[in-house]
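note to self — DONT lose this again. spent like an hour looking for the file last time. sequence + predicted structure for the chain T wanted, 91 res
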Amino acid sequence: MGKIAAAIKEKLESAFNPSQLEVRDESHKHAGHAGAKAHAQEHGSGESHFHVIIRSKAFDGMSRLGRHRAVMEVLAEEMPLIHAFSLDADS
């Protein structure tokens, strides 16, 4: 697991105490795309595309948009380093 993926996992575990958490680095699927090499040089990592699945009681009563906003707030430092991020968040 790369440093960005590890930071995502650590921050989400700390903030939401999830019953399920999967942080999938899908950057390898995009390695040949235009800009992938430049992204790696600019950000010091080839990590650029992530899919996160998270289940947490902390999301109880939140709308889908509320869950997404909560996750994005926790990952505010990492988001400028990420090209693509998909999220499956529920309680």
